[in-house]
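User: Is it possible to get a 3D structure for a protein together with its bound compound? The compound here is NAP. I've pasted both below.
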Amino acid sequence: MKKYALVTGGSRGIGRAVCVKLARMGYDILINYASNAAEAQKTLELVRQAGQDGEILMFDVSNRAQVVKAMETWEKEHPDEYVEVLVNNAGIRRDNVLVFMSEEEWNGVLNVTLSGFYNVTQALLQPMLVHKYGRIINLASVSGLKGQPGQTNYAAAKGGIIAATKALALEVARKNVTVNAVAPGFIETDMTEGLDVESLKATIPVRRFGKPEEVAELIGFLASPEAGYITGEVVSINGGLHT
Ligand code: NAP
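Assistant: Yes, that's possible. Here is the predicted structure of the complex:
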């Protein structure tokens, strides 16, 4: 029987690297994206090069109706299968100091991260509980652990996802479903483009940004059967930036 993993925001950056890693682990990948169809297609090609198949699922994680419809359609097409690994990776950054932060900047970031987590996880959780096996990994951030000026929205969202990870882990542990978060520091993706890389590097003990593939290795381990005794954890991957 085929095994399936869904990666939200799988079209680019960390999400793409996670798709490839999980494909190498033997999963067929459901690649979600919001707007960048060409990049999602590129990820699908990489998944196929890694020896597995995949499907592209377009939906905005913050739009509950879109998520429910996409997952109901998938379930109808796969009546005997379920998604056993979920990586809640989709995320956006809309930085601003709070005094000038617009409602769109505040709500946009919270909706994608927190409502996105709720919408997608709820759509996939029941089959995991029924099959008594599942792995859920949520993308947090160093910002959600220690705060970052200009990121009250992003820090609130990522801090919230850490708390949600811990609460859900306790709800579903008995059913062999683990829920963990990873908290990256600075990783080389579109999200960190335009930052002052040289001065930021000087603040990182290992003196470089991390690579999406390094985050994907960690997520791959948390998604593996071998990680079954780790749940409710937040694992940092930040080159020593924050311990
Ligand atoms: P990225 O390169 O900007 O890619 C973001 C991905 O999320 C894209 O695939 C994008 O899809 C998707 N996405 C955005 N909004 C979406 C929505 N409403 N519905 C569905 N998909 C959506 O970001 P990244 O750097 O890989 O970050 C991935 C995750 O890691 C995020 O949660 C981020 O907060 C977290 N993180 C990143 C860093 C870092 O330094 N890069 C550090 C800490 C945490 P489209 O291609 O369709 O736009």
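Residues 8-9, 11-15, 32-36, 39, 60-62, 89-92, 112, 139, 141, 184, 186-187, 189-192 surround NAP (CB under 6 Å). The CA atoms of residues 35 and 58 lie 8 Å apart.
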